[in-house]
Design brief:
heterodimer, A: 261 residues, mainly alpha, two-stranded antiparallel sheet, B: 413 residues, Cytochrome Bc1 Complex, Chain C, Helix Hairpins, 18 helices
């Protein structure tokens, strides 16, 4: 019992110490911000940016990061990148999935279908961890919602690589990042100018790729954001009108009574 | 109940009502005489009833799609968010609904404290209310565990570990609660089962709460008894119904803002990371509505005493009707109590803030002072104040102060 008591106390103290660091570092490092099109009461995703963002994900991030909660069919759904059905079929068929067992009891590989989940770069967490020098590349399905600062944070992190100050010693496989907690990150800078060739001819600057892929990740984390904003706007207008009607009915009813409401 | 004389107009109605007096009940609810000077702070009872029903209905739908298993729970919540038709709406409504429920219940409780609604003859209403509040906290806590994110898992670990502070049998209790030697799948499944059960217990208690209310009738802003029902009261329907509806709609606009435009603002980002027993989050915090209690828990250096202080902070509320010795109900006529009331409000808000801050240095010191003051307010100030305070003379009836401008201004403040 003493041990549990102690460990709880240590957890409290440690967690609070760390939390304090989070606060103080956040104050000194203000996140880079972008004028995200999906913020605000009627915010929508930039369709072209989503499509480019998918390209960045699949050509750059996907070699280490999984997105296990997404399926290829999501890419064609309303409010997302809205690729055409045929495009999605073509995209999916580029990937191979293991299926089975078949009637002979054997597993087999086949091209992916739109209904399949995004294929994962590694079989499991352990393989992902050991292949990346001991740092697990997190699944990116809900990453934007799982980080304080959200889209701004991921955007800042992608553009936050810098030469380390002379007073910080970095081990092999550790990189300096202005926005990472403790400034040390195991992921090498994933972006460089003209790293990819955008299908739509946009120039692939670091800022452009970061913006596109973060837009894509924001959609992946919140695929119904556009519907939410649309329905929310209607719901609130409806509620305001109903409130006014209720208010005037109330005034009318209470006009018979003293004191009035 | 004042309307035993109700007779249904139809023959069938009379036949049925003689066997099960539902029509009498419905008549009573419509005619229920309500003080006509109730202000908008009295609309939160209706709002809370709405919140409970909304949580139950959205919760039942969520339960149709949720999978209570440590390996599947996180993904099943995401399945609701992504693949279930309007699942995102139902889940965000339910998740933000708990915050809105607590917002409303805190206003409801502090309204009682201000106008003395907990005093004779309404002690039983108050005590039932406190039991509801306690069950609400347990339900909300268990609901927070179900998505099986990092904060779910670690909140469950911290809170269940509190019971290990009980001397001698502490460890057995925690093992019994967990269904194992750590928080795991058996913990998740039992929390799910109880999270489904408790709202119905709350519903039953709400019925008792309202029943107990309908015996003495509502308190009111000036806190004196109804003298002449014909002059001082209005029938519940339509006067109070329309007023409650209006207030509910305003409340729903705020509710809708959170659900549609800031659905994750009140949650913690870490809860979108799947639970991992090997990685402790940097900062374990409960949901905002539990923060004052968390601050009290942490401000006591000894773990067992901290747990006792936390439960005592709720228990002092249960015995409040006997701690508050003043015969005058409403703070409107208690100038001293009014000051202390607002100090208590600030104190509780301060405790909430300290609950979110690290328990160290100045924060810890402030939390300790605020915790001490919380208990001093209830255990020392209130009992003494009732005897010492010079109160303002009460009006003769509910309708009287309306005629006098000076008191009326007081009421509107």
């Amino acid at each position: 019992m003493k041990n549990i008591l102690k460990s709880i106390f240590v957890i409290f103290v440690l967690s609070n110490l760390c939390a304090f660091n989070v606060f103080s570092s956040e104050e000194t490092n203000k996140l880079l911000s972008n004028d995200w099109s999906f913020k605000g009461f009627t915010g929508k995703f930039d369709r072209a940016s989503l499509q480019r963002g998918y390209q960045v994900y699949t050509e750059v991030c996907a070699s280490c990061h999984s997105m296990k909660l997404l399926s290829y069919r999501n890419l064609a759904e309303e409010g997302g990148p809205e690729f055409s059905e045929d495009q999605v079929k073509a995209i999916a068929s580029n990937f191979e999935v293991t299926d089975g067992p078949n009637n002979d009891g054997e597993m087999f590989t086949r091209p992916a279908k739109p209904s399949d989940n995004f294929i994962k770069p590694y079989q499991n967490v352990q393989e992902a961890t050991v292949s990346n020098g001991g740092a697990y590349p997190p699944d990116m399905s809900v990453l934007v919602k799982a980080r304080s600062g959200g889209a701004d944070y991921i955007y800042s992190l992608l553009l936050g690589y810098d030469d380390s100050p002379s007073n910080i010693q970095l081990d092999d496989g550790v990189y300096y990042n202005t926005y990472m907690l403790g400034n040390k990150i195991m992921m090498p800078n994933p972006l460089s100018e003209d790293l990819i060739e955008y299908n739509d001819g946009t120039k692939a600057t670091n800022e452009q790729m970061a913006k596109d892929v973060v837009t894509f990740l924001a959609w992946a984390a919140e695929p119904h954001l556009e519907a939410r904003h649309r329905i929310g706007f209607k719901a609130i207008v409806y509620l305001i009108i109903l409130t006014l009607l209720a208010y005037f009915s109330m005034k009318r009813l209470w006009s018979r009574i003293e004191p009035k409401v | 109940m004042s309307d035993h004389n109700y007779v249904p107009s139809s023959k069938l109605g009379k036949w049925f009502n003689d066997r099960l007096p539902l029509l009498s009940l419905s008549s009573h609810l419509r005619e229920y005489p309500t003080p006509k000077n109730l202000n908008y702070w009295w609309t939160f009872g209706g709002i809370l009833t709405f919140c409970l029903m909304a949580q139950i209905i959205t919760g039942i739908v969520l339960a149709m799609h949720y999978v209570a298993h440590a390996d599947l729970a996180f993904d099943s919540v995401e399945h609701i968010m992504r693949d279930v038709n309007y699942g995102w709406l139902i889940r965000y409504f339910h998740a933000n609904g708990s915050s809105m429920f607590f917002l409303a219940v805190y206003i409801h409780i502090f309204r009682s404290l201000y106008y003395g609604s907990h005093k004779s003859p309404r002690e039983v209403i108050w005590i039932i209310g406190m039991i509801i509040y306690f069950l609400m906290m347990m339900t909300a806590f268990m609901g927070y565990v179900l998505p099986w994110g990092q904060m779910s898992f670690w909140a469950a670990t911290v809170i269940t570990n509190l019971f290990s502070a009980v001397p001698f049998i502490g460890e057995s209790i925690t093992n019994w609660l967990w269904g194992g030697f750590a928080v795991g799948n058996p913990t998740l499944t039992r929390f799910y089962s109880l999270h489904y059960l408790f709202p119905f217990l709350i519903l039953g208690l709400v019925i008792l709460h309202i029943w107990a209310l309908h015996i003495p009738g509502n308190n009111n802003p000036i806190g004196i008894d109804v003298k002449k029902p014909s002059k001082d009261t209005v029938p519940f329907h339509p006067y109070i119904v329309i007023k409650d509806l209006f207030a509910l709609l305003i409340f729903l606009i705020l509710f809708a803002f959170f659900v549609f435009y800031a659905p994750n603002l009140l949650g913690h980002p870490d809860n979108y990371i799947e639970a991992n027993p090997l990685v402790t989050p940097t900062h374990i915090v409960p949901e905002w509505y539990l923060l004052p209690f968390y601050a009290i828990l942490r401000s006591v250096p000894d773990k067992l005493l901290g747990v006792i202080a936390m439960f005592a902070s709720i228990f002092v509320l249960v015995i409040l009707p006997w701690l508050d010795t003043s015969k005058i109900r409403s703070a409107v006529f208690r100038p001293m109590y009014r000051q202390f009331y607002w100090i208590l409000v600030v104190d509780v808000l301060l405790l909430g803030y300290m609950g979110a801050m690290p328990a160290e240095g100045t924060y810890l010191l402030i939390a300790r002072v605020a915790t001490s003051y919380y208990f001093i307010h209830f255990l020392i100030i209130l009992p003494i104040l009732g005897h010492k305070e010079k109160t303002i003379p009460l009006p003769l009836s509910i309708t009287e102060p309306v005629l006098e401008d000076s008191t009326n201004k007081e009421l509107n403040n």
